[in-house]
Amino acid sequence: MSAHRLFRFPKPAWINSANARTAGVYTAGALFSLGFYLLIDVAAWSKSAMNPSDPPVHVTFVDWIPGICSALGMLVINSIDKSRLSADSFSYSGNGVAWKARLVLFLGFALLAGGLAGSVVVLVLKYIVSDYTWPTIWMGVGNVIANGMVMLSSAVLWVAQNMEDEYTYNLAL
Amino acid sequence: MAGIKTIIGLSFILAIGFLLVILSAALFKNYLTLLVVATYVIAPLPNWICGRAANPDDFMESSGSGVVDFGRFLTGFFVVMGIALPTLLWHANSIDGGAAAMSIFGGLLIYGTIISFTLFFQEDQEF
Q: Where does the sequence pass through the membrane (chain A) (predicted)?
């Protein structure tokens, strides 16, 4: 295996341990929770007495759409069994399983990236173009951070699950 | 080995945690912070349920570890929720900053007690 190595530094051994995988999954849950509660925070702050905007600016359904897209994308990405991605290289699993997996995965990534891009669109079009000042802009900034957190959580979960696959592989051999 | 001293100490810490959370609610006449207790009490539940649902012995079947991972994901979600919820309420001016800090600290004490109890209990079961 080491003869096929591309990089000068070897992958540290702890990456494949079961503990690192478990910690990755916990971290993913924590990051998703941060993103989710940032969204809730923006909505609660919008209706609270802390919102100083005059005329009043509130969170509408438009602000929720990017978050919904991101969460759906994360759900789609992590529902896919990662080992199916290379299924076509084996002769016994035909019927284009890998092709379908890649299509669904592409949809998931598109939803995730669309969520992040959509939150930036909401920030620019609804808050920055209208020349709102800082405490009001928080509703847009918090939305962007929340979607970034969901994306980060999805990436961490993806890496953790791939770790698990290699760990299982090493164990099976 | 978990002796009687450990149990007494843990229950003491649990009592302090509950005291902090209840004080944070009662001192400020605002009972929203009691949500933290509920959060930390249900935080370990997904791990237990999904641990029962999955079979940890078969390594070839990936369906089992998916369920376990989902339980861990939910646990991480609930633990951060216990910190995020008081902060959110404080930011929206529903509770005071002091109440938020007290409920976060008390909630962390409660959760730490639950986790330590589980650890000691599991150690007992293995032998």
A: 20-40, 60-80, 101-125, 137-160
* Pick from A97, A142, A106: nearest CA to A123: A142
Cβ proximity of B95 and B32 under 8 Å = yes
CA dihedral (A139, A141, A142, A143) in degrees, to 10, reads 80
- Give me the residue spans of the domains in chain A: 21-163
Helix (H), strand (E) counts: chain B: 5, 0
The amino acid at residue B114 is I
Collapsed DSSP state (helix, strand, coil) of residue A9: coil
CB contact under 8 A, B73 and A157: yes
Residue A52 per-residue DSSP state: -
| Tens-place pLDDT, residues A77-111 | 888 777 666 655 555 555 677 777 888 889 999 99
Q: Is the dihedral of CA A96, A102, A104, A106 positive or negative?
A: negative
Q: Quote ipTM for the complex.
A: 0.79
Whole-angstrom Cα distance, residue A125 to residue A140?
A: 10
Q: Are A67 and A119 in contact (CB under 8 A)?
A: yes
Q: Which residues of A touch B (CB under 8 A)?
A: 22, 25-30, 32-34, 36-37, 40-41, 44-45, 47-50, 81, 83, 157, 160-161, 164-165, 168, 171-172
C-alpha to C-alpha distance for B50 and B68, rounded to whole angstroms: 5
